[in-house]
Amino acid sequence: MVFAHGFGGDQSMWRYVAPVFATDHRVVLFDHSGCGASHPTAYDPDRHADLSGYVADVVEIVEAVADDPVTLVGHSVSAMIALLAAAERPDLFDRLVLVGPSPRYIDDDGYHGGFTAAEIDELLETMDANYLGWTQAMAPVIVGNPDRPALGDELAEVFRRNDPAVARKFARVTFLGDNRADLVRVRTPCLVVQSRVDVIAPLEVGHFVHEHLPDSDLVVIDSVGHCPNLSHPALLVAAMRDWLGGDRW
Amino acid sequence: MVTSRAERWALAPVALLLLDAEVRVLDANHEFLRMIEVPDVEAVAGRRLADLLTVGGRIYWETHVSPLLHIEGRVDEVAVELRTPHGREPVLLTATEREVRGERLVEVAMLSARERSRFEQELVGARRAAEDAERRVRLLHGIAADLASVAGLDGVVWVLLRTAVTLLGAGDAALWTAQESGPLRRWGGAEALAAPTIDELTEPAVREDGTVVVPLRTAGALLGVLALAPRRAAGADPLDLGTAAAAGQLAALALARATTHEQSVSVASELQGAMLSDGIVDDPAVEISARYRPGVHDLQVGGDWYDTFRVAPDVVALSVGDVVGRGLKAATSMGQLRTAVRAASDTGLPPEEVLGRLDRFVDRTGTGFMASLVYAELDLGRGALRYTCAGHLPPLLVPADGDSHYLWEARSTPLGVRGTTPRVADTVALAPGDLLLLFTDGVVERRDRPLGLALDELAEIVTNALEAGLDGEDLLAAVVARAPQDDDACLLAVRWLGPRTTDGPAPAVEPTAGSAGGPSADEERPG
């Protein structure tokens, strides 16, 4: 079981979810290039100028860690990365769990993505406003691992080296992309996990994804916010357990 | 009088909020209500904090602040903006999470960050400007270095189209260059990249689709136009007009240099072609072919030459040489020296004395100093070849009925250099059908190995080509094809067919006849 974190975080976003599955799965966590403790040279502005670079990374990771098809769990933008990876390499993926997926954040003719183009520009501005505090603000997420406090300083150092400009680019890739047309290409069985209230990926978008995926189930969990993996891990785990261990298997 | 704690919370000079587990507002103090310009708590009670922020702030809250709050129970000094009836209010937000009787509560404090925000924006602006400047300088250095590595128009065009994508970040690029007459000439780019408009010929401009168009001018003259289309990937940065314009200045200079260079190259190569055009003697007793191939990496012509001419009715002189240097000057020096060889030779004058005369020519004129040269005279009636090498590679003799070998005798220093050895010449006797190959050093592939090995390889190439049935021009073409591409290569092949008959073509060569060679030739040949 491979867990892919979303925009704004690193693998510690799975800290309340992954350990539960580690009891009966081999669990693989990673930081996307340019995020968390990834090596500074792993990020390539050309390769990662759109999602395809991240998709290629995931394919390489899965090829490296598993001989058989895996269950890939993707949160936020990584839900799209997971879908694109499965469309390209269906042989590598058994099942996909998509937490808060959105194929398109910007409203379009007849499509409600939740944001206008101007609002996304505003997000990029906000990121700029936090330019100075950016790394400091996020550092505790990765260093705050109570089980391994010694890791703290070392990781904080790694994190400080990470380029805020990379985070800004990742934001552009995440929020300016449009992958609606790719949904139909995915034949892998998918579980769409949707928060009841999510301003980033609203309920409507969850339904859109479910309806356009050829083989998917939709579960709306009683959570608020874009990160149920942190705010409501028990609900997310239950939904996943239910689906993964359900009748269809 | 001491006020109550509740009153102090309500009146604190900092904006305070109490939120429930779903980050909805339970209570807010006066300072917060003042900030967002609402009259009372009822106006915000029950609303989610994220909804009170600008959209950017909302996403930032959901993707960064909220996860942090969940993991750490606390966030400090996060810059977000509140929505107010009159726009935005930048604030610094600190939030903590705690449990009260099994219920999760979030306490939030906010300070207005208007001043700090302005200061930070200036800092961010300055930092970004510094980063941009550094990146731009590095990039322009890269382009300048690449442009310096090429000379001709083709090379400059190639470098510009390539660096537009690799360094300037364009998704596609097209270049138009001005021609002596007629319209601009287009190089590269997809059809969607439209030709420049009249306005775009004067000032750098950005088209609606993000394409940057830069006219390339030096001293007011339009040399070309560079168009850069942006990459389509969502994460790609827009093209920077300033950087493109600066790159355009480099490009214009490079185009100007390439144009001048090509003019000089074409003058030099025309001159060289003209000078070499009259160099083949036509006689039934001999088959002569020659080939000159300029090096490809440097478009400049070299100073290689070949020549054949009659010094007597029955004697043909052969010369192949190489003056030092490249370009127009080398071409003119070559022409002078080649003519000097003709002037210096004379009926009955031994080749070593021809070299002596050339030395004096070099001394007097300074032209051709250090030039290398092989000079030979072939007696068409008897097949006697008298030759001398001044600092030049030895000729290759390929007998009609034996193994090939180099003529290593009669060696002395390059022209104008007085060595301890006198100018000398040697004689070999050719048999009908024997082939003599004179060449310059560009024909031999050195690759950091001893000259002997390189010469062995050349002999093998020649032998193989002959066995494959190639001869004359075809033979030389095959040999040149194996020569290193970067240097000029010059070759002269001379096959003596035997004494000419008075009333017809030369007798057919019978390699197995083996009777026409003189005594000295027999000594050199294995039976």
TrEMBL record, chain A:
Claim: Hydrolase is one of the keywords in the record: yes
GO MF annotation list: hydrolase activity
Pfam families reported in the protein's UniProt record: Abhydrolase_1
Keywords from the named record: Hydrolase
Domain of life of the source: Bacteria
Coiled-coil portions: none
Domain AB hydrolase-1: 1-172
PANTHER family noted in UniProt: ESTERASE-RELATED
Family of the protein in this entry: Belongs to the AB hydrolase superfamily.
Protein name per UniProt: Alpha/beta fold hydrolase
Origin species: Cellulosimicrobium composti
UniProtKB/TrEMBL annotation, chain B:
Region (Disordered): 501-527
Protein name: SpoIIE family protein phosphatase
Organism encoding this protein: Cellulosimicrobium composti
Gene3D superfamilies: 3.30.450.40, PAS domain, PPM-type phosphatase domain
Lineage: Bacteria, Bacillati, Actinomycetota, Actinomycetes, Micrococcales
SUPFAM superfamilies for this protein: GAF domain-like, PP2C-like
Span of domain PPM-type phosphatase: 283-496
Pfam family, one: SpoIIE
Keywords: Hydrolase
GO molecular function list: phosphatase activity
PANTHER family: STAGE II SPORULATION PROTEIN E (PTHR43156:SF2), STAGE II SPORULATION PROTEIN E-RELATED (PTHR43156)
